[in-house]
Amino acid sequence: MNVERLFYTDDFSESGFVFAPFDNQQKSILFPLETSDFITENISLDAFIDEEKTFFADEAAKETHIKLVEKTIEEIKKNDLKKVVVSRTEQVKIDDFNLVVIYQKLLQNYKNAFVYVWFHPKIGLWLGATPETLLEIKDSVFTTMSLAGTQLYKDTENIVWKSKELNEQQLVTDFIESQLSGISSNLKIDKTETVKAGSLLHLKTKVTGVLNEKSSLKTLVSALHPTPAVCGMPREKSKKFILENENYKRSFYTGFLGELNLQSSTFKTPSSSLFVNLRCMSINKNNASIFIGGGITKDSNAAKEWEETVSKSNVMKRVL
């Protein structure tokens, strides 16, 4: 096997592990099942995280991001955009990089997330702990979710969400319902709840349904990705604004990854578990690129949106 060869999925009918970019017009990378080895290991969760560690924001980065948010708000108000998710990246120098220890810290800090390490010699090293499921499907029965809104966890999940956050969450839920109604049946939308991811809280709404016989996994993935939780609404106009105005390339941040069409003795057909690539970083030698963003609506406050990205970046920095 040539371990440096890049494989891609053509139509999501293959089996293996998929790693897809934010831009849904680009190809999704595949680790094919037939060329992969499966190794299991018991990992200790005794890695230490310094919860009291403080970080100092870059004033230039702050000014740049606030200007981007302000421009986004202006664009929303003068066009038919309802929401746009804008993001930024931070560069963090790493001393004594230890992959296993960082992975342990991610597992320890994100007990309710999908935690991963992904590497290919032509792409590089990525780590993440995402709280958001893009899609789980077993025997045509699928589950997805809308996830939006962010608050710092302060010893309780019994909090009050403001109208901006509630409206943002509803936009995502409405989009998912609209996208899935024509390709599925028995759609069920659960009650919105507050969930904890690391030291942050989010609003989550679970959506379940049954994929129609004439629809495929590719149809389902195309309907969902990228969701308004990572892109915006309307989707294509939001995506165009992001690609033209963010000051970097997202690459695999806000893409998706996971197991694709793996066979199980429990189900009649192979099942897939795909997750949105949030709370992630790429590693290049002794430098970590951390990716953070937030959903912008007409009611957003640029300074508060900056602070939200700071809170998200600090959570990731504590594992380094």
**CATH domain class name:** Alpha Beta
Judging by the overall fold, what is the CATH architecture?
4-Layer Sandwich
Show unreliable segments. none
How much of the sequence is in beta strands? 25-35%
**What fold name stands as the CATH topology?**
Anthranilate synthase
How many DSSP H or I helices?
Answer: 6
Q: What is the H-and-E element order?
A: EEEHEHEEEEHEEEHEHEEEEH
Q: Estimate the mean pLDDT confidence.
A: 90
Shape: globular
* Rg estimate, integer Å: 19 Å
Largest sheet features: 10 strands, antiparallel
Secondary-structure content class: alpha+beta
Q: At the fourth CATH level, what is the homologous superfamily?
A: Anthranilate synthase
Count of the domains: 1
Proportion in helices = 25-40%
The number of distinct β-strands equals 16
GO molecular function, one term: isochorismate synthase activity
Enzyme class: isomerase
Catalytic activity: chorismate = isochorismate
Keywords: Isomerase
Please summarize what this structure is:
By secondary structure, the protein is an alpha+beta fold. Helices cover 26% and strands 34% of the residues. Pfam families: Chorismate_bind.
Please characterize this protein's 3D structure.
The chain is an alpha+beta fold and 320 residues long. It has one domain: 4-Layer Sandwich (Anthranilate synthase), CATH 3.60.120.10. Helices cover 26% and strands 34% of the residues. The protein is built from 6 helices and 16 strands. It has helices spanning 59-78, 99-109, 163-180, 217-224, 235-245, 302-317; strands spanning 7-9, 16-20, 28-32, 83-93, 114-120, 124-130, 133-138, 141-152, 184-189, 193-197, 200-211, 232-233, 256-262, 271-276, 280-284, 287-296. The strands form 2 sheets. Strands 1, 2, 3, 7, 8, 9, 10, 11, 13 and 14 form a 10-stranded antiparallel beta sheet that branches. A 6-stranded antiparallel beta sheet has the order 5-6-15-16-4-12, sandwiched between helices. Helix 1 packs across helix 6. The protein is globular and about 50 Å long.
